[in-house]
């Protein structure tokens, strides 16, 4: 098998966008395509199918060369938890692409992890609007998860939970049940309101309740950075919850003894306040785990996992080629 | 003014039913009507209007006598918080009924309170699917509230919050993040599930998410009664939150020094476990408040408030007539 002739496709199908790359077996990426959301839980299958086929075919048509062969396609997809979903995608890919290739469908969280571990086993902690921690060993396909039970039953430590706690503190101050907090003024300013009771209509009549509540996390983070006690308690609790997700996960599965890389992703970590406090607490409570924010987007993780699936070692040379070719392609992602 | 010739109408417009009674100025009830929901927040105004006019006219046509006069109508209505809503109801009643009468529209919580205080000033604590505490002085119309900010931002100590905490504990056990709890088995049995991860589809794809989550409170209460530690912590916290609502309210308004009657209502207090534990904690933390469950439904509170509005004293004799005539009418409520 000549690796420079083989082609590998990695796809990241998320809630708002779908990215797809194609490259050879030695780390050279040759094309990047971009489509709309392909989350199977929030879009009808006919639409997801259309986005997938357009993204993949655009990559395949533009990124291969004469006489090159398709080897493996790795799709990291949001909302692909159920075996039925994966089978449906598999069948559709077999119609779409040259047959006898390997098609792998897994959660988009695993792609995000691989983009930080170069395809080595590891743990990913995601804290955006929601939260979840997942461990994955690409070699054995062993997978575990903790958390991620959604805004009503879980998502501890997420932007939604931080925002919700902030809004609740604000209403407790308003009611006289709780102390003063700087969160109040910040939320009122952010949402152009006169007083806390206006939250009710704004939040409950909002089509995107989850997103709206999570937006209030900004006010909590800013208040915490200024030393507000209520906000600091909320942030500390959230970080404690996220640490607990990782701790619990570290005790699961066969890799119990080893210290895995801990990849962190999601909008909350974009806040330097949050990231640095998380890192401090992780150093205390998660000895041996050094949280890293991946340099590459999840679509690169998918491509790396496609290579791993074909037993290709991600050598230093492969990494260098990958980084160089990605830098050449990434301009396209910004339109 | 001959009080036996005067007629007073009390209406309780709730989320599932509307009750209406008519009686004279001396405590004699003569008719009870029943209609569907008249919550202005969950039904279009044209429908609410139809339910109100049918309920009231049925009472007026059947409960008055020759030469009797309409004096006051008191409507306790769910979802009537905004002044615009009250004005709209007021205008419509003026068209419907003999003019120059007094029409009063207030929250249905105040009717529930009056049914327990015989129209004296007091506090009502409601803990059903949601929770809220309200104080009201019928003589001055002074009104305060604490809590009741809905399932996302408030409702502390409610059935929803207890159910939610129970389901979260169950998922923490499932994840390995939390200890064993008897809640798990009870919820799985109640909802005919094999394991906790099935909660996700069941809860999030349910049209009545709030009600569904609140149903899990039953499993928490049963587990607490059997000594389950996790369940007991949830129940203790919920009771603490409810006590805090009352404490905060007791510090508001002009009646700070006096000990008001504390009326309790809502489905949670139907549980003897919950009621007796609440009463114990109230005795410790709310000195002077002795929680009472009203003997009468809120529609009777509305009628009492109509009498109070006309400065009629609720003497022992009035109370006796009211209790007797209500016992004669209440059979109708059970069809």
Automatic annotation (TrEMBL), chains A, B:
Keywords: Kinase, Transferase. SUPFAM superfamilies: Actin-like ATPase domain (SSF53067). PANTHER family: N-ACETYL-D-GLUCOSAMINE KINASE (PTHR43190:SF3). The keyword Cell membrane does not apply. GO terms for molecular function: kinase activity. It holds the Pfam family BcrAD_BadFG. This is N-acetylglucosamine kinase. Residues 9-306 form the ATPase BadF/BadG/BcrA/BcrD type domain. CDD domains: ASKHA_NBD_eukNAGK-like (cd24007).
